[in-house]
Amino acid sequence: MNINPLRWQLKTKFISILLVVLLIPIASVVLLKEVEKTLVDNLKQNLLLTSKLYSLQLESNSNWFYDSRLPDTESAIADELFVFPLQQEIVLDGFFDEWEFLEHFRANLKVLDRSADPDTMGFLMGAVKENLYLSFQITDEHIIYWQPVQTSSQESSRGGGNATNYRSELIVVSFIDNNNIPQRIFIKPIAPGKIPVEKISQGELKVDWRYSAYWVETADGFNVEVKFPNGLMPTYLQVRYFDVDKPQQTIHEKVIASSLLDLNPVVWPSASLDKYVKTLTVNPGQRVWVLDTKGRVMARHGDLRPPIQERTFLSAIADWIFAPQISPLVDHRSSKLRLSSPVIQDALTLGPSSAIESELKSDFSVALAASPIIADGQVLGAVMIEENVARVQFVQRKTLSQMLYVMGAIIFGVIGLLGWYVSKLVGRISKLRKQVTTLVDEQGRMRIPAELDVYEGDEIDELNKAFVRMGNKLYDYHDYLEKLASRLSHELRTPIAVVRSSLDNLLLTHREEADTETIKRALVGTERLGEIITRMRQASGVKEAMQSANFEEIDLTDFLTHMVAGFQQTFKSTEFKLKHPDKPVVRSVSPDLLAEMMDKLLSNAIDFSQSQHPVIVELVHDRDSTFLNISNTGPLIEKKNLRKIFQSLVSIRDKRNESTPNLGLGLYVVRLIAEFHGAKVKAANREDATGVVFSVIWRNK
């Protein structure tokens, strides 16, 4: 294929145009990929602006932070315990339906100094309308219920009565109440269902009916729900679970506790703050945090899971192009109660900050932005917003899908329109080309061109008209040339005959030697004119004979044998040799025209052959082709003339015999007859440079 577009075929040019059209969506995809970087930067800016807006709103409600009970934990040994705002009052039934949205915050505590022990205690605290609720989810293969027994005096001194009976499962909650007074309550399993909560009062263990508790067994242990008296809001609290695996034991084998030595500080975020955050409009894949100055979580809302996209065929294409996030979502902050990040530290100390966090060995990324909450010149906390960067890809893929729908419709429409137009245009051009190629038949005769129907009135129709006009003019001129020889021979024959007869009479009547010589030269000239006219009539006659020729199946071997034998008798001074296959070579030919062609070829060979060397006629037949070769020893033909000699009125002979005229029509007639029989004719010099070979070649079907 030519690399120069100017030399391309019309069809190739149109295909190139279509390919250029297809480059438009490819360029759009590349542009969208570049836009992704800008979208991420814009995402950070938008998150930063949103966090500033939320922080301003919280600054106008700074009392929510003062309403929150936030103990100073700088010197605390034990970890903080958070009281989560509940959405509704808890029904004490031992089931955790109301706690479901907080389950991922449940602290799972293990047996102290026995990390391999299967027993665990899951613990949660929640509050609604100043009512504190505790939720225990304990894993224990052996549940030992409490039964009254006689205790020793040593045990009685620890609490009196049954207070020191540790031979059953026991939950102990120690706390400091609103009045900064230490308190302790005991919860023992008597039977599934409601159970009393006991408290040491005046040295004795008594039931405190202000507390409520419910115990229920599970497949792998038991659940306990406890409700504190209204308004009782501990600032420090510790939970311990004492476990025994066998009855009648005087000591507990295992202890699970929220802290080993000290009470845990209790963080009470404001319910109003949590309610406000829950009302914020959060996009899918986005989460809002409100933190205090220690990074403790006061409220949160949202989820980093990206939006679920409706799957379509174009979605698969978009995923293939943009390589969406395929790594599982790694959300380390989802269950955190205290956050630590450079973005948060910058917001609390320097001012608004934003960043992109990426997981190692993962394609999961999160955009972060945080702004401080300042009231009366004091930093109360910070608002942090984080968003899964996959949401940008979601928007990007959604945009790409919409773009593919629109551009696909446009491109298919353009391709369809161009395809229809190109096919129509190529069809018209092909039809015009076919018409132009049929202006000349296989014998070189001009045909009358049939005018194509004109529909468009465009340049192609104008070109069609121009070819029709040119064809008609060429036909008229060619017809004139074809008839010229016949008319000249007809018109000149009589005058030449009159001149010849007059010269003959003059030759008989004149006795002077000088006049006689002149008359003889005039007679020779008239003979030459007559020969020229005869040959012109022969060439014209061959073309006319082609129109009415009849084809017959003949054996070329037998045909050539008779043909060569006839020439041998006529030209006895020239030797002829015939070489042919042993088997018959049958072809469908016109015997008269084939004889005329052989006459021209053999006559040409005789004219140039050296008398001491034979003219060789050879018939070669194989599976693919049939060759008829006529070879003679004599002068060579220049390479530039090997094709030229078969053209009309072309002769490269030396004038060896001036008495014999040569118009260059003999080999032209040979070519016409060969092409009429579906063969090709060529001339070549012998390989030994001793003569010339003329070949007529048929391709076997």
UniProtKB/TrEMBL annotation:
<dbReference type="Pfam" id="PF02518">
    <property type="entry name" value="HATPase_c"/>
</dbReference>
<dbReference type="InterPro" id="IPR036097">
    <property type="entry name" value="HisK_dim/P_sf"/>
</dbReference>
<dbReference type="GO" id="GO:0000155">
    <property type="term" value="F:phosphorelay sensor kinase activity"/>
</dbReference>
<dbReference type="InterPro" id="IPR036890">
    <property type="entry name" value="HATPase_C_sf"/>
</dbReference>
<protein>
    <recommendedName>
        <fullName>histidine kinase</fullName>
        <ecNumber>2.7.13.3</ecNumber>
    </recommendedName>
</protein>
<keyword id="KW-0597">Phosphoprotein</keyword>
<feature type="transmembrane region" description="Helical">
    <location>
        <begin position="403"/>
        <end position="423"/>
    </location>
</feature>
<dbReference type="Pfam" id="PF00512">
    <property type="entry name" value="HisKA"/>
</dbReference>
<keyword id="KW-1133">Transmembrane helix</keyword>
<dbReference type="InterPro" id="IPR003661">
    <property type="entry name" value="HisK_dim/P_dom"/>
</dbReference>
<feature type="domain" description="Histidine kinase">
    <location>
        <begin position="487"/>
        <end position="701"/>
    </location>
</feature>
<keyword id="KW-0418">Kinase</keyword>
<dbReference type="InterPro" id="IPR003594">
    <property type="entry name" value="HATPase_dom"/>
</dbReference>
<keyword id="KW-0472">Membrane</keyword>
<keyword id="KW-0808">Transferase</keyword>
<dbReference type="InterPro" id="IPR005467">
    <property type="entry name" value="His_kinase_dom"/>
</dbReference>
<dbReference type="InterPro" id="IPR050428">
    <property type="entry name" value="TCS_sensor_his_kinase"/>
</dbReference>
<keyword id="KW-0812">Transmembrane</keyword>
